[in-house]
Every structure is written in structure tokens, then in C-alpha cells.
Amino acid sequence: METVSVVPEKETITEEVKLITGSEALMRSLVAEGVDTIFGYPGGAIMPVYDALYDFQDQLHHILVRHEQGAAHAAEGYARITGRAGVCLVTSGPGATNLVTGIADALIDSTPMVCLIGQVGKSLLGTDAFQETDVIGVTMPISKWNYQVTNADEIPEIISKAFYIAQSGRPGPVVIDITKNAQQELMTKPFQYQCCQTLVSYRPRLIPKQDQVEKAAELINNAKKPYMLVGHGVLIAKAEKELLAFAEKTGIPVATTLLGQSAFPADHPLYAGWLGMHGNYGPNVMTNECDVLIGIGMRFDDRVTGNATLFAPQAKVVHIEIDPAEIDKIIKADAPVIGDAREVLNRLIPLVQPNDHTVWRNEFRKYDAIEEEKVKRPALAPTTEKIKMPEVIDLLSKKTNGEAVLVADVGQHQMMASAYYQYKRPNSLITSGGLGTMGFALPAAFGAKVGDPSREVIAIIGDGCFQMTIQELGTIAQSKLPVKAIILNNNYLGMVRQWQQLFYERRYSFVELQNPDFITIAKGFGIDGHTCNHREDLSASLDTLLNSDKPYLLEVIVEKEENVFPMVPAGTSVASIRLE
Amino acid sequence: MTTYTICIFTENTIGLLNRITIIFTRRRINIESLTVSETERKGVSRFTIVIKHESREAVEKLVRQIRKIVEVLAVFGYLNEDVVYNEIALFKIETPLGAKPLDIETINNQYKAWVVYWGLDYVVIEKTGTEEEIFTFFEYIKPHSILEFVRSGRVAVGKTEKGLVEYLPEAEWEYYL
Ligand SMILES: Cc1ncc(C[n+]2csc(CCOP(=O)(O)OP(=O)(O)O)c2C)c(N)n1
Ligand SMILES: [Mg+2]
Predict the structure, then answer these.
(1) CATH of the domain at B129
(2) β-bridge pairing A37-41 and A61-64
(3) Contact call for A327 and B64, based on CB within 8 A
(4) Pocket residues for ligand 1 (CB within 6 Å)?
(5) Average pLDDT, whole number, for chain A?
(6) Do A141 and B22 touch (CB under 8 A)?
(7) Inside any domain, residue A530
(8) What confidence tier does A426 reach under pLDDT thresholds 50, 70, 90?
(9) pLDDT of A554 higher than 90
(10) A427 phi and psi angles, rounded to 5 deg
(11) Facing residues of A317 across strands?
(12) Sign of the CA dihedral with A485 first, then A491, A493, and A498 last
């Protein structure tokens, strides 16, 4: 027996006598849902909610961002580190449209988020009223679910549904558009909140079908050269321990996708590296050597497969994935297993035979040696006058013992942050993978720090990216949280410049930046920082950054025309990977 | 190009048509016809969407994407042979004085079409059938000067013995009985 939104199990709040406004109901719903933080920005159509929030400040910590895009990315950072939905609260019209990039980003990177958006009063809907935007229409293709609330009575049920949908199955952003009258008016019935735990039409499969698991186990047991590709789904499912147990039992080498980084310890002997356009040499080319490819919580993105028709044509594919629409979408699966990564691995572990695949694993090593020789060594012991990005990340990795959280923006510095940091703990690389949203890092790093203040959070940002959400320095300064940021300044939109160099005959078309003095700007916001220009100062500079108990900005001036390698040119086979 | 009939069962909420068509638009799949109505279960709507596509795989992917919409209860992609289907068409035919009279007997017996309205100098003929049957009749009636012609879009039910109950057993739906 199942109805739309019940099972009174978690927390049930019942208020007998007093009828409350929609805004207060919203506050109480958030409290009941266990929300502790809201990233928001007020405005006309959401004022009744902000007024109610005034009385709930102790329970709902509201953080005033400087731009709604900052709220969205901060909520994403918060969600990525806590596993719980990040909450945004903004006004209608421009407040809502400023969230759009972050919502799209959260959808493609499976990040739980609940966006609460003010809307003009019900009677004004469709009249081009002041700051009226069709938010439901705008966000329909970029949200997991959206809903327009037009009366106060709906609020508790819709909020519980919103959190359930955002956080369950394959997580994603949910948008709730709340008309002003619904915020203002009194509910007609006593407030009551019941956490939603099931819906009739939405039933993500967590527990896999046994026959699918058995078929997968059989393929894995018969494999001579099995190879595991691990994605964000493992982190979302909190299946790192199970993955480790599975890998150690079977001896199967593990590579991660960009978003799968830190799902498997980088210093583990079974860790092969990461794969994708700028991933490691061996992990990329070995996709075309293995006989069984096991994708776990990943979706064979084109930045992973290159030309998909040439991707692992020889391999039988086991695809473990919670979203059935991902099965066969890009790569045909011989053994699909639909379910939560942790639930699947737990059932798979007893069915697989112990193995060690030493000979096969050693085949990766010869590629590692070539990459070491051609790419890593010159990158880490450069003869150039200017510092190179890999040096910074490598030194940072050593100084933090691979235990910090890096929040990387988008571009060359992002790829270097992924390639040269030895991630040892889960959820340690937070970056915009699917959408590649420049400007993600600063607010997301802030959100991550809010979500887990116990971890050292360091944003790695390009000089271009920094200027997309630079205003969030204000949010960080006001919060006083010790968020650290490193700008790797090459004075270029480096990644685009690299493409222009390699594929457009060095015709540098609008990629050079005349940058402001970032440190002066930071200081203007009340954030301390300094610039590091010389290799001999790098270590001390990083120490200053790490030792600061306040927010800190370190700008490192790096080699201007450095390229990221390895590189699989877009649309080609992973076999066409270039090392120089 | 193969014709596929996509049957989508959904909760009856605002904006669902939009949610569904977005998925077609994004993949540049043209909708040939579309009908929506409530099913034998209260609050459950049925969309019947006809498309033409050369790739069965693409249609399967489309079906899975539609299934992801939160309010969607079930989706089925059928080939023509898997379904019983029909459309209804209305023809408004000019019948001015002195024109060749309509051969009602042929229209009724051969084409299984019926005059459902007699106007002063026109009639409305209703024809139920497959797209092909409707167009065969269209060819036949064309010489009579068609003032207006409208087709409903396909309605279809699967040829399996299963009813909705077998597909959506979990829910407690109210029935129209
Ligand atoms: C919002 C947005 N606009 C444009 C792009 C395209 N783009 C990808 S990387 C990049 C350059 C980033 O420059 P910078 O932040 O300096 O990083 P670098 O590559 O130099 O390390 C651009 C423009 C993008 N990903 N996102
Ligand atoms: Mg740059």
C-alpha cells in the first residue's frame, strides 16, 4: 500500500491549534527535513519567506551570497561533501534565472539540490507582472523535478517530496516555485510534516535483480583482463569501502573518471589512474585491451570514451548503474546491473572468485613508465623559469598528505588538479564535470567548507574562471570561514588557447586576458593573500596559505603557454591519445 | 522509417505534456500525432504518441528518458503489429446545388464512413480507421471538394492480454466502473 507521500517514520511534527502562514510552514518544513544551511538572496517575491526566516535564524543558518549563481554552486559544493541536498532561496525573475547555470550543472553532475524560488502572486501569473518569469518552463529541461506551489496548504507535502526526489535514486536538482500569496496566506489546516519516502510514479531501484548480479559475476569470473571504471555514482552511494573490498578480492585494476576521483585511494596498488580526455595514458589505452570492462556508477561520457564506436569494441561490458536510462545509452552493456552501487557491490562480492591478475596489471605499468618519462617528469622538474601548474598541485598534495578537498574550476588548472593530486579520502575532488561551468570553484569551495568545516578545502582556480564568480569573495569574507583559494594564473583562457594551438594553427582568437590585481581585489574584500612568482617561493607560499586560519588567496604566476597532456583529441579513439 | 506508437501513462498533473515533448524536441524527433485522455483509472492519463524513426535503438533510448520523468508511471514503445489502433477523421464536404451528388451507399458500405451532420450546402462525414484507410477514403472523396479535413491522431491499445493493473499493480487507484 502506497500513497503519495507518507510513512510517518522519521519525524512527524504536529501542531494542533494555531494556523500558520505558508512562509512559516516552509521554515518548519525545512527544519523538519533536517536542513541546517540555506544559500540565498532576497527580493520582492520572496520577502514573506525572508520575514519568516528572521524568526528561524537559529535553526536555519542563512548565508547571503553575492549573486544567485554563487548560491547554486555553493549549494552544490555543500551537497557534494555532505551527500545531502543543498538549499537555495531566491526571488523570482532575475533571481531565478541567475540560478539556471547552477541547476543545469547539478543535473548533469547528479547533485542533490532544492531551489526555493519566489514567484508573483497567483492572480498575476501569466500577466507579465513585475519580475515574473516562467520558472517552471525555464527549468523543466534542467531539473529532476519542478513544481509550482500556489497555496499554502501544499507546502509541507511538496517540500518533503522535493527533498525525497532530490536526494534519492540518481540525485538531482529540484525547483519549487512558490507564489507570493502562498507564502503570505494562512494554511487552512494544522501544519503537519511527514518525510516523503516513496512515490507511486517514481521508484528508483536500489536493490539489483539477482539474475543481473549473477550474470555480471560470471563475466567477471571468466575474465582474463578485467578492468574497472569507477564514477561519481560510487561516491554518491558511499560505496568506497565496498569498492575497495571488491577490488582487493578480485585483483581488478581500478581507474576513475574525473568525478570518480577519490572514490578509490590513489596510493593503492590496484589504482591505475584516471581516464578521459586528459586522463592517464595507461588507463585510457587499456580500455581497448581489456576483455571485460566494468563501469560502476558512471555514464560513459564522451570525455571518457572519445569516439564511442571505437571505445573498447573488444570488451564485454558490465554496467552497474542506478539510472536505467544510462544503460546502452552510449556503450552497449552485455551485463547491465541496475541498482545502487553499494547494494550491487555488496551482492557481487560473495559471487566473485579471488584473483590477482598480476600479469595483466603489470601491463599498465609500461604505459605508466612512458607517461612518467614523457609527461610527468618534465612537468614536475621543469627547466622553465616560470612555475608550472603540476608543480603547484604536486607540492600541495605532499603538504596536505592527499587529505584536503580540492575544488577545481574549469580549464587546464582543473585537469592538473585532477592529475597531480594524490586523493586519499572520498569526496576530495569537487569539480564541474558534465557542464564544465567556469566560475564553479569559488562558491562551491565555500559551500563545501560550510558543509564540512573539519576538512581543509582549497579551491584551484584559473585566472579566467576566477573573474566569473569573483564577487563571492564577499560571501567568504562575511562568513569568516577559512576557505583557501589558489589562482593558477597563466594570463590566458588556457584550455581554449591550447585547442587553438593544437587544432587551429595557433590562431589565438580572444583568449588573452588583461587581468586585474587579484590580491588587491581580495584585500578590498578583506581577504588576505599574496602572489608567488618564483619557484623558490612556492613552498613557503603554500605554507602561508595552509597555515592561515582565515580565508586566504594565493596567486601563482605560471607558465603562460603550457599544455595539458595526455590528451585524447575530441571525437577520436582513446588510442589516438597524445603525450606531447 | 518505422512507425512507433509510444504509450505513456502518467499522473494527471499540470505541465506534463510539456515535460514529455521536451524529450522529443531535444532529440529532434518529430511527433506525427498525439492524443491524451484519462484512462480507466482516475488521475491516470494516457498519452499516445506516434513517431517515425529509422533506429529502434534510438526509440528505446527515448522511452527510457521518458520513463525518468517523475510523474510518469509507465512507458511502452510499440510497433504497429503490437497494437490495435485507429484514428477518427472528419471531412467537411461541399454539396452545392447542381454538384455531383454524394454516393452515400458507397461511402457507407465500401468505406465504412458516415455522414454525421447535414448542413445547408455541406455535409460532415466521419471516418474511423487506420491512417491508410483514412487516406484511401480521402482520395475517394477528394473530387467532391473538401472544405475541411481533420484527423484525431492515433489511439492504441497493446495486443497483450494484460491490462493496466498488471503494469501498475502497486498503486491504489480509483476506477471508473
Ligand atoms: C561559463 C563558461 N564559459 C566558457 C567556457 C569555455 N572554457 C572552458 S575552459 C576555458 C578557459 C578557462 O580559463 P582559465 O580559468 O584561465 O583556466 P586555464 O585553462 O587557463 O587554466 C573556457 C573559456 C566554459 N567552460 N564555461
Ligand atoms: Mg588561465
Answers:
(1) 3.30.70.1150
(2) parallel
(3) yes
(4) A 409-413, 436-438, 462-465, 488, 490, 492-496
(5) 96
(6) yes
(7) yes
(8) very high
(9) yes
(10) 55, 45
(11) A293
(12) negative
- For B130-165, the pLDDT digits (tens) are 999 999 999 999 999 999 999 999 999 999 877 776
Nine-digit cell at A468? 566569473
Do residues A410 and A552 both lie within one domain?
yes
ipTM value: 0.91
Alpha-carbon distance of B62 to A157, in angstroms, equals 31
pLDDT given at position B171: 60
Of A495, A509, A557, A559, the residue with max ligand 1 atoms within 8 A of its CB, to mutate for a pocket test, comes to A495
pLDDT tens sequence across A253-285: 999 999 999 999 999 999 999 999 999 999 999
Final residue belonging to a domain, choices A333, A364, A395: A364
**φ, ψ at A515 (rounded to 5°):** -90, 150
Query: Is residue A572 situated within a structural domain?
Result: no
Three cell numbers, residue A336: 547491465
Query: CATH number, domain at A272?
Result: 3.40.50.1220
pLDDT band at B100 (very low <50, low <70, confident <90, very high): confident
Sheet containing A61-64: which strands, arranged edge to edge?
A61-64, A37-41, A86-90, A113-119, A173-179, A145-149
Closest CA to A255 of A300, A295, A315, A220: A295
pTM of the model: 0.95
Hey, which residues does B93 pair with through a beta bridge?
Answer: B123, B146
What domain range includes position A145? 9-184
Same structural domain for residues A145 and A13?
yes
The distance of B137 to chain A (nearest Cα, Å) reads: 41
Residues B79 and B160 in one domain: yes
Residue in B19, B64, B170 nearest the CB of A200 = B170
- Is residue B172 domain-resident? no
CA-CA distances (angstroms) from residue B51 to B5, B15, B78?
Answer: 7, 21, 10
Q: How many domains does chain A have?
A: 3
**For residue A139, which of A80, A79, A170, A98 has the smallest C-alpha distance?**
A98
The Cα B21–Cα A293 span in angstroms is 35
C-alpha cell at A314: 573488444
pLDDT at site A12: 58
Higher pLDDT, B43 or A212: A212
Q: What is the pLDDT of residues B51-97, one digit of tens each?
A: 999 999 999 999 999 999 999 999 999 999 999 999 999 999 999 88
- Residue A376 counted as domain residue: no
Question: Which amino acid, A495?
Answer: M
Range of the domain at B98: 85-151
pLDDT class for B99, splitting at 50, 70, 90?
A: confident
Identity (one letter) of the amino acid at B36?
V
Whether residue B174 is predicted with pLDDT greater than 70 in this model: the reply is: no
- Chain A residues within an 8 Å CB radius of B170: 2, 200, 203
**Cα distance between residue A396 and residue A387, in whole Å:** 14
